[in-house]
């Protein structure tokens, strides 16, 4: 907010804010001041993500009916994080949902929501969530979310036009690939004509495979390695540069409306899980009163 008030364009690290109300204030401020604003979800801009979205749009696996995504770390939480680390400190909006789970939700949204034309995108029609809270601080150490997305399926088809997503995150269960098990899909995108599996970690994948239904073609595996230093943030930076060059206030790859919708989902997940943060960081009052 300080940068927007100073007339600066902003690229803001995910999660955008602590809650959806704060995200709306940022977007409203950027709109009024005619400034560029984007949530920094680097995964959206990877060539792998773009290829997967294009495959879905081009009906490569038919209608997508289910997405399962998991972004988790297998850590000795008490030893590694203690009580003050940002991952478990509620004063810093700690917990796995806002830090890790947002990537699981990113895969649900970029496959079941973002692949539809913008005027056909609808928020989840149902949200069911379960949280396990860290015993030392009360931040979430495990969160599982079940989402139902309405689809654009014609009403004359036999199923009711609902797609499901399961988004998971955990601080004690690893989904990172290792030397003994390099192929470990963190994301499964299941359609009527086949499946796309994306190997983890979900926030920085480098490999996916297309698995058609039996008798409908051959399995295809695609490598998408990171060039150079391997960090991969340049694709996100390139998008910001293009938007600024073209005078855009938001990116089509993650528009303000979608960032807000994802924040609203996380608000509801926290409500169901009983996770609240101190008022000083949930507040929508600006300037903040300390």
Entry keywords:
single chain; 290 residues; alpha+beta; Dihydrodipicolinate Reductase, domain 2; eight-stranded mixed sheet; two-stranded parallel sheet; 8 helices; 10 strands; globular
How would you explain this protein's 3D organization?
There is one protein chain. By secondary structure, this protein is an alpha+beta fold. It has a domain at 42-225 and 260-275: Dihydrodipicolinate Reductase, domain 2. The protein has helices spanning 2-5, 20-33, 47-57, 77-80, 96-112, 234-245, 256-273, 279-282; strands spanning 10-13, 37-40, 64-72, 126-133, 140-150, 162-170, 185-191, 194-199, 207-212, 220-223. The strands form 2 sheets. An 8-stranded mixed beta sheet has the order 4-5-6-3-7-8-9-10, with helices on one face. Strands 1-2 form a two-stranded parallel ribbon. β7 (185-191) and β8 (194-199) form a beta hairpin. α2 (20-33) runs antiparallel to α7 (256-273). The longest helix is centred in the C-terminal third of the chain and has 18 residues, at 256-273. It is globular. 39% of the residues are buried. Keywords: Oxidoreductase. One of its GO terms (molecular function) is oxidoreductase activity. Belongs to the Gfo/Idh/MocA family. This is NAD(P)-binding protein.
């Amino acid at each position: 907010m300080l940068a927007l008030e100073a007339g600066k364009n902003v690229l803001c690290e995910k999660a955008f804010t602590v809650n959806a109300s704060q995200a709306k204030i940022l977007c409203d401020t950027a709109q009024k001041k005619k400034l560029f604003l984007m949530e920094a979800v680097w995964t959206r801009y990877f060539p792998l993500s773009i290829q997967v979205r294009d495959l879905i749009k081009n009906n490569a696996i038919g209608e997508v009916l289910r997405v399962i995504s998991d972004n988790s770390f297998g850590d000795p939480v008490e030893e590694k994080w203690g009580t003050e680390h940002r991952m478990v400190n509620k004063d810093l909006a700690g917990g796995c949902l806002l830090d890790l789970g947002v990537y699981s939700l990113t895969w649900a949204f970029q496959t079941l929501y973002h692949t539809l034309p913008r005027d056909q995108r609808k928020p989840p029609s149902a949200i069911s969530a379960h949280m396990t809270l860290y015993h030392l601080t009360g931040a979430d150490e495990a969160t599982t979310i079940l989402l139902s997305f309405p689809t654009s399926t014609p009403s004359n088809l036999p199923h009711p036009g609902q797609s499901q997503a399961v988004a998971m995150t955990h601080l004690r269960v690893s989904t990172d690939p290792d030397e003994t098990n390099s192929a470990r899909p963190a994301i499964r995108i299941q359609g009527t004509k086949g499946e796309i599996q994306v190997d983890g970690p979900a926030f920085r994948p480098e490999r996916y495979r297309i698995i058609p239904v039996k008798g409908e073609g051959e399995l295809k595996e695609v490598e998408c390695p990171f060039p150079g230093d391997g960090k991969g943030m340049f694709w996100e930076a390139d998008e910001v540069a293009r938007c600024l060059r073209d005078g855009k206030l938001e990116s089509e790859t993650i528009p303000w409306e979608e960032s807000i919708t994802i924040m609203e989902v996380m608000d509801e997940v926290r409500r169901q899980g009983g996770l609240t943060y101190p008022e000083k960081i949930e507040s929508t009052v600006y300037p903040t009163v300390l």
